[in-house]
Amino acid sequence: MRYAAIALTLPLFTLALPAQAGEPKEPETEDTAKAETPKKICRYVTDGMGSRRKRRLCLTEQEWIDFNRGQ
Fold this sequence. Notes:
Layout: H1 2-21, H2 29-36, E1 41-46, E2 54-59, H3 61-69
Antiparallel strand pairs: 1-2
């Protein structure tokens, strides 16, 4: 019974493959735009002296340099 189900579904997959192969791909303009944006680095920092709770802060590399310098 198991082999009959596989044998019946196999032709469906073979018919779908040529239809998918003929579709043109879109140009990769989104990937180049994403590559130009600076990568965010996320770290946990404490808010102040009165709390042990940490919060997550996501900044770019240059923003972290400025943050550590106190600017």
